[in-house]
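Journal club prep — side note

Before the paper discussion, L.F. wants everyone to see what a predicted structure for a comparable chain looks like in token form. Sequence:
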Amino acid sequence: MLAVRGALASIFFVVVCAASGWAADLSSKRYELTVAVPFPGKPPVCCMAVPAAKDLGYYDRQGLDVELVNVGTASTGTIQLLAAGRIDVGTASVASGFGAYAAGAKDIRFIGAELNNNFELSGLKWAYAAKTSINSVEDLKDKTVGLPAGPNPTDPVYVQISALLSDHGMTDRDVRWTVAGTQAVRAQALMAGRIDFTQVPMELAYMMTPENGLHIVEFEPVGANRQWTGCQCWFANAETLDDPDKREAIQRFVNGTILALRDMAHDPKIFEKAMSLYVDMSAQTPESIDAVWNYERLRMQSNGGINLDHISAWFENEYLENVNPRAKGNISLEDVIDPNLVADGLEEIGIDDKAYWDPPQLSFVSE
């Protein structure tokens, strides 16, 4: 079992400066980066950090020009582009990146996260959209469950729902799995009656009404899934990170994205401004916007999403045991994770000590 200690806090404690008041000491040289995001068009609010950091000028202020590549095949697609060397950074679920590494793509490196669900720290529950006839896990028997990629360990929705089924004495064979696409497409499939149960973005919760035969149902997280789960992470190639100019560009990407996340997590007006870039706000109310912000802000990784204690526990107790047992012997955290970009970023811009849901812990110590 990998032992991990919190050395970062003992190295430095910095009171975080507000993003609007912090400015990097940047040269006049500009850097370029190609980043793939796992959605074909406008992002769901939960995954808007990178597009928002670009559209609201956070990367520009870092001296960074970011080209976004939209991918319609979710995390699997972004990791495939990264493994093929066609992009510099891919945003994806941790299971997709780790799965590719375990399958032979040994150049892939996890460098941080923008979105995470640590339910023990945030106090949030697992939220799903469902037909009103579904009020318990047992009610899922023989129902059609919509997934982004399919019933495999690279699909984070499958991983979560499969854990729920197992915790309630059910198996994967008790439901009908179907690939239903991105979050917005899954919401449409639910409205049309093609599926019975799925995850949808919180900004579409207003559609899940009894009048439509739908509702939002919440369940308590189960097993190791209550802790770090790595929903939307940043991956790069080791070869790219060895190039000084590219590494500097990626460092600026990390810093700019963290600063954007902090502003959105702590300032509802900035969050709403970002949300309005990608969502039809005419369907929203002040109450619905506030509800989306209060849910999503507790998942925004204001300190870069690397806590090696939490990741190690998830990796040993959940990933290798339940998500992808075939990866045993083919992957170690010390090989696949490079925490130095987040560590260097936090040393430069400071720790957000208000983000209790994202405590950084960035050093490995082996027993």
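L.F.'s comment for the group: Residues 1-23 have pLDDT under 50 and may be disordered. Keep this in mind when we get to the figures.
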